[in-house]
Specification:
Layout lengths: L5 E5 L11 E8 L2 H10 L4 E4 L5 E2 L4 E8 L4 E6 L3 E7 L4 H11 L23 E2 L2 E2 L4 E8 L4 E6 L20 E11 L11 H7 L9 H15 L17 E2 L1 H10 L5 E3 L5 E3 L1 H7 L6 E2 L2 E3 L7 E3 L5 H18 L8 E2 L1
The protein binds flavin-adenine dinucleotide.
């Protein structure tokens, strides 16, 4: 089996910010074996790409870009109450959610309509509407780049946190995720109390007592498509900043200055502040800087209208500076900057 490696390849179609960067070398892999073969020959810097929806390319990539397209949704175990499935890292995340809901495997419906691949989902522990990937992960299978042999990380070893995991910390850049195992429920257990799910459901004529996981998926898709810009027409990476976590004293200080501050209490006693609200308070919503602008309905989303990410990162830096000056909070950029 030989894999074609293209040279000087455009990455524009492979990142949702539509940055017109190029890869010195580029290939697509569809199995662990192909991945091992390509990596065995490679000595260049490496970038793994899923859907490119959480990535800011700052220029051409001087090494090998591997597009991960390892497929497969396989059932490993089932009981009356649960299923354990193993999913290839190259599956499209929302296709997985759709498949699971259709087969009566529940737990992913609140994570509907998140762009990207299954393999990237554990890296930042994707989350939406009160559910995070960590709630259903059994384990994550990887290829360790040092010896090109498989490794398995239990959910505990993944050390998931808010938009965080071991793959963004001590194991960053050391593994390629090849498969993710998820334990899903065969009994619906709906999470309706986050964001506007319940209110929209009522407004759109659903009977709350009769809601199904498929209804929840459809409601969330409708909310998200009204609120979030489509990367195909307004290139973006979703939330550009993480919501900051602050202690009680900092929260009281900020609240004294901004009484309407939106905060979500966390299990560890900290409070998660809505970064979009903070940015909006400082008047950034809809503002433009060069070829970048802040979305006019959601201040957490930055839109790129240029062919590089230069203006976008400058705009992000100015927003960070403004929030720091006003409230002493350091906003952290959510996507990987490469
Ligand atoms: C409109 C929009 C809405 C979004 N909404 C949400 C949301 O609600 N919640 C949320 O959490 N995120 C959200 N995101 C962010 C993004 O969709 C997720 O982070 C997603 O998991 C990224 O997947 P990807 O395949 O596109 O990753 P990529 O952008 O391809 O990669 C992201 C990072 O992971 C690395 N990587 C990718 N695949 C692998 C692998 N197999 N092994 C090792 N490293 C890998 C890459 O090298 C890169 O550093 C949104 C993005 C957009 C554009």
């Amino acid at each position: 089996m030989s894999i074609t490696i293209a040279q000087d390849y455009s990455l524009r179609p492979f990142n949702t910010l539509a940055v017109a960067a190029r890869a010195a070398h580029f290939c697509k892999v569809q199995s662990v074996l192909e991945l091992q073969q390509v990596l065995a020959q490679n000595t260049d810097p490496l970038l793994i790409l899923g859907g490119g929806s959480n990535l800011v390319l700052t220029g051409d990539f001087p090494g090998l870009v591997i597009l991960n397209r390892i497929p497969g949704i396989e059932m490993l175990e089932q009981t009356a109450d649960q299923v354990l499935i193993r999913v290839g890292a190259g599956e499209i995340w929302d296709h997985l959610v759709e498949t699971c809901v259709a087969r009566g495997w529940f737990g992913l419906e609140n994570l509907s309509w998140i762009p990207g691949s299954v393999g990237a989902a554990p890296i930042q522990n994707i989350g939406a509407y009160g559910v995070e990937l960590k709630d259903v992960v059994e384990c994550v299978e990887t290829l360790y780049l040092e010896d090109l042999l498989p490794r398995t990380f239990s959910a505990r070893q993944c050390r998931f946190g808010y938009r965080d995991s071991v793959f963004k910390r001590s194991e960053q850049g050391r593994h390629i995720i090849t498969h993710v195992q998820l334990r899903l429920s065969r009994q619906p257990s709906l999470h309706l109390d986050y964001g506007e799910i319940r209110r929209c459901a009522e407004q759109w004529g659903y009977d709350i007592a009769q809601l199904t996981p498929l209804d929840v998926r459809q409601i969330i898709i409708r909310i998200r498509s009204a609120k979030l810009p489509d990367p195909a027409t307004a290139p973006n990476v979703g939330s550009f900043f993480k919501n900051p976590l602050v202690g009680a004293a900092d929260f009281e200080r900020i609240k004294a200055d901004a009484p309407g501050v939106v905060a979500y209490p966390q299990a560890d006693g900290t409070l998660k502040l809505a970064a979009g609200w903070l940015i909006d308070q400082l008047g950034w919503k809809g503002r433009r800087q060069g070829c970048a602008r802040v979305h006019d309905r959601q201040a957490l989303v930055l839109i790129n209208e240029g062919s590089s990410s230069h203006d976008l990162l400058e705009l992000a830096g100015n927003i960070q500076q403004a929030v720091l000056q006003r409230w002493g909070i350091e906003l952290e950029i959510e996507p990987s900057v490469v």
